[in-house]
Amino acid sequence: MKRDIEKLSKDEFDILVIGGGIHGITVAREAAKNGYKTALIEMNDFGHSTSFNSMKVIHGGLRYLQHGNLKRIRQSIRSRKIMQNVAPHLIKAVPFLVPTFGRGLKSKNIMRLALSVNDLISFNRNYNIAFQNRIPGGYVISREEILKLIPGINTEKFTGGAVWYEAVVQNTERMLLEFLYEANQYDFTAANYVVALEFINSDDGIKEVKVKDLINSSEFNISARVFVNAVGPWFNQIQKKLEFNKPQIKLTKAVNIIVRKNFFADYSVGLEGKENFSDTEALFKRGKRLFFFVPIQNYTMIGTTYKLYDGKVNGLEITKEDINEIIEEANYLFPSSQLTFDDVSFYHVGLVPMDEKSSAGSIQAERHSTVSEYSRNLFSIKSVKYTTAPVIAEEVVKKIKKKIKPSYSYKKEVKTITKNYSGNIPQVVAERLIKTYGSHCNKIFELINENKSYLNLISENPPIITAEIVYAIRNEMALTLKDVILRRTGMGMLECPSLESIRAVASIISQELGWDKPKEISEINNLLQVYSLLKKNVETAC
Asked: Where are the alpha helices (DSSP H) in 96-214?
């Protein structure tokens, strides 16, 4: 994939998507697949904001049983299947466990019934899905079994547990890139670090968008027949640029933490929080919010908390109070965890639309993404769930089809993975490359065959090699150190890499992009700032 600013400035497109998170990228992929000449711009890096700050769970919709919302369950299953097929190498089926107790809605019998109904509704969940990614059916376990799986928890009130499976994305940032790769098989152009400045109207609606390339500071116009606003939490700001007199959406701050402990082996465990919680849409109310402990490698993700956010979108930050709130909750729910602030290795913080029915003590995110038509040729997405982005994209393109016809025919290329790496690549490195990059790992192997120094190890955990850095710069529009470490290689997605490895990556990027020493130092310090809250004495590059 190449960043083609010249094509963006000179060509006329059928569709311009503004916003390069999961919703914008899935819309672009769906539009390109359906024969539309499509462009996408993102003002920062792809997936840098809310999409980056995800729990990484692709839900199958079990939670919507308590809402009686079969449509949402089916949408969730369809979205999950799309993601499983787009990036099978990134998906892992993980068992989720919730304790059962009492004789009411949380009892073993009711949960057994719910799991059976869920399996029935999702009858085709494994059709055309790779064997290793198939989702098993749910079941209940005994009190004795749950004690083995959750040692150290007070099981006096528990009667057993309910187990079902969800798909967990091992690297959500690379999932976005896989959708970009699919779109790139068609007539598609994308660029990160391009910001929309102004919408230029004609009698027939929006004609062009004036944009600025933040890399070289040039300004130009992009022409299209239809425009899609998929900017996530910047929704209100785009409304202002469009001069629409529409109500502004309220935002909630969502936070997860990652800790250097694996509590429950391969199981994700949901435990009820201590505070009362009212789900405004639930037909059958549980009364408490579930906190999930989700394993990822040798770490655990814990969350999620929600708070009303009334600050500037660009000024979103995580605080010690945000982190300590989850630590306190985790220690209350699972006393054996004995978590402290020093156990936290990383965090997720993002903004999503808030449910307008939320009360002061029960802040919750909006349940459903919505697609609105705001002018003759503008569609806006109020995006909520990472999980359902692919089906929201299908909805958007269906609406676009009523407006304009595709301008060209297309032929899909078939992707295959061929493990054509030579024997001198360590097996642990080769296996990680295949699991991380899927079919694209072949280009990394080609780089290694061309230059043996590209096999040099940058980091041991995870085992990152020089070729990955070069590949990200040359093929995936990585333009900053944060792009490479946070959103291409996964090197920094669980905790801050060593300063030595960060400097090594920065040096490689400098050679590829021609950075001078001050620029290199600035990039290192910008990256370290991401981790500054969690490190007592963050080192700097200077």
From this structure: 108-121, 143-149, 172-183
Q: Which stretch of DSSP H or E encloses residue 399?
A: helix 389-401
Six-digit token string for 261: 């402990």
Looking only at the bridges linking them, the beta strands covering 139-142 and 158-169 are antiparallel
pLDDT value at residue 537: 47
Q: What values do phi and psi take at 338, rounded to 5?
A: 50, 50
Burial degree of 205 (CB within 10 A; 0-12, 13-18, 19+): middle
Tokens standing for residue 353 = 């639309």
The pLDDT of residue 153 is 77
Q: Specify the 3-state DSSP secondary structure of 167.
A: strand
- What is the pLDDT, as a whole number, of residue 246? 74
d(CA 507, CA 458): 11
Q: Do residues 200 and 208 touch, judged by C-beta distance below 8 A?
A: yes
| Residue 213: strand pairing partners | 194
User: ω into residue 518 within 30 of 0, thus cis?
Assistant: no
pLDDT of residue 412: 55
Residue 21, SS3? coil
Q: Which residues contact 508 (CB under 8 A, 6 or more apart)?
A: 458, 466, 469, 470
Distance CA 483, CA 3 (A): 14
**Whole-number Cα distances in Å, 466 to 21, 473, 512:** 27, 11, 12
The full 3-state SS of 467-527, as one line of letters, equals HHHHHHHHHCCCCCHHHHHHHCCCCCCCCCCCHHHHHHHHHHHHHHHCCCHHHHHHHHHHH
Domains of the chain with bracketed CATH: 5-50+173-247+368-401 (3.50.50.60), 90-169+250-353 (3.30.9.10), 427-534 (1.10.8.870)
CA distance 250 to 522: 34
- Is the N-terminal amide bond of 304 cis, ω within 30° of 0? yes
C-alpha to C-alpha distance for 25 and 396, rounded to whole angstroms: 12
Taken as a whole, the chain contains a residue count of 542
Residue 308 parent element (H or E): strand 299-309
Which residues of the chain are under the pLDDT cut of 70?
A: 154-155, 276-287, 359-361, 409-423, 536-542
As given in the structure block, the two tokens for residue 255 are 């936070």
User: Coil, strand, or helix at residue 465?
Assistant: strand
- Alpha-carbon span 106 to 159, nearest angstrom: 10
Sequence-distant (6+) residues with CB within 8 A of 493 are 171, 173, 346, 486
Helix, strand, coil percentages for the chain (3-state, nearest 5): 40, 25, 35
- CA separation for the pair 342, 326 (Å, rounded): 13
Rounded Cα distance between 235 and 241, Å, is: 10
Report d(CA 454, CA 466) in Å as an integer: 5
DSSP state of 415: P
Residues 6+ apart with CB under 8 A from 466: 453, 454, 455, 456, 458, 508
Q: What phi-psi label fits residue 443: left (phi over 0), alpha (psi between -120 and 50 degrees) or beta?
A: alpha
Measured CA to CA, the distance from residue 172 to residue 475 in angstroms comes to 18
Q: State the pLDDT at residue 542.
A: 43
**Could you count the other beta carbons within 10 Å of the beta carbon of residue 152?**
12
